[in-house]
Amino acid sequence: xxxxxxYLAHGVAWGCFWLVSICVVMDFAHPDGLHGLFDNFTVHAxxxxxxxxxxxxxxxxxxxxxxxxxxxxxxxxxxxxxxxxSVGFGLGWLPAxxxxxxxxxxxxxxxxxxxxxxxxxxxxxxEAKKINDRIKEKxxxxx
Length: 143
Fold this sequence. Notes:
mainly alpha
């Protein structure tokens, strides 16, 4: 339960972080202000939080040891991207005007997911190596 709450809080934080980051960039791009860029800011803020929760809580699947890594990644990607696409297309974040625009959005989003996933994988692998090196070092100095 504690782990789930941690993931939920992390998701809300990431969703809010990205919403604010995008608003700042849009504010610089549109110096006249953000008025009219969002038809309903509250709906977009809630959508951002939902996507943040969806993307940040799905890594909990990596805690399930009986699943193979490819199964964990498939579940993580399917649920996370499914939530992102549902909210993104529903709120107009992703273009849905033509089949080519939809395919471009899907492919780009999947590629971004893979890059982010791989970045976290490399980071976690590096951290695990540092921890293992410290354990080996400690075991050698204990004797």
